[in-house]
Design goal:
heterodimer, A: mainly alpha, Rna Polymerase Sigma Factor, Chain: A, Arc Repressor Mutant, subunit A, B: alpha+beta, Immunoglobulin-like, 2 domains, eight-stranded antiparallel beta sheet, 6 helices, 26% helix, flat
Chain lengths: 180, 232
Amino acid sequence: MNELAELEALLLACAQGDRAAFRRLYEQTSGRLMALCRRMMHTEEQAEDVLQEAYVQIWRDAASFDPARASAATWLAVLVRHRALDALRRRREEALGDEELAAVADETPGPLDLTLAAVDGRRLHLCLDGLGERQRESILLAFLRGLSHPQVSAAMAAPLGSVKSWIRRGLEQLKRCLHA
Amino acid sequence: MNYRTPERRSQLAAEYVLGTLRGAARRRFEGLMAADPLLRREVRDWQEQLYGIIDLLPAAAPHPRVWAGIERRLAPAGVLPFTRPVPQRRPWLWPTWAGLATAAALVLAIYVGLARGPVPEVGYVAVVDDGSGQAAWVVRREASGIVVSAVRPQRLADDRSFELWLLPPGGEAPRSLGLLSASGGTRLPLARDLLAVLPGAGLAVSLEPVGGSPTGQPTGPVLYLGRRLPDA
């Protein structure tokens, strides 16, 4: 069984209440999902909290996994990213109430680490690498920090119109490259 | 907004997944997605592509205390590593509602009925439509309740109100969530116990006398039903 099919089988077993499957799922996926939490959150402790909360939800929500709507790996990643974005948003709201824009500076204390590992055969890496620096940065800020267009604009100290066009053109180019 | 060209559809799908499509534009897009399988496919493709970013991050196992914490959370009693009842897949049944819903409404494919855990999800989004595939409202879960936005203004007689109902999983009696504005957005507070069952519950909108149902249960025809959207 290849890895993707195995993940899918484990998730479906979790949905049936199989605790051993949940443990195996954790062993197989927590390293990768922790990497996402580490990159999105500011401290190791925050990353661990988010990961823990996410796995509790994975166990409880496993029955809602539908292979027709997402691969198992992506379903897990979407869930973890949303928990991390919630945590980032909560921190922002606690810190500054409604002044979301003013919070951007606070929200990105360690500047976002934009380095991505070159993984053999990963076309996505080549394609992201082929983007303009600002296109790549604005897309990763939106994805990993959950920033809106105006927030990316504030974080990069760049005009809103430029940010919108970097993101739009960057995504277009990404798609062309990925499908080339 | 123009949704027709393939380029535009792809771009909106990408920004939907990325999270930069926000506010009214996001709600309109969700309304379209509900009625358009190809658009959902586009979103799914972007999701698979963009989340590939994870494979480019340096993986490293989390500290063992994370797993210990998960076990603790799932088994507060601590007798077994953790236990919980086997989740029940609940087929969608409307025992007390069948008489109220129109025949057309009953044959709608509703897939919101899977039991979900007690953790309320902020990402929860549902589309409420009339069965023609035209979304009427988008329901979004927020920290303290839900926000219901009219995708387009609805026609409503002066002596009538739209009332939103939550249909708890397991066929319990519907719970009123409040009256909906026929245009624009309505923010409705939601008790914590209802927030917790929201992801596994159904939603419906009935036509009631102005001010809402006098009985606390739906009295008018069910005009719209909710469908949960996949998380982006």
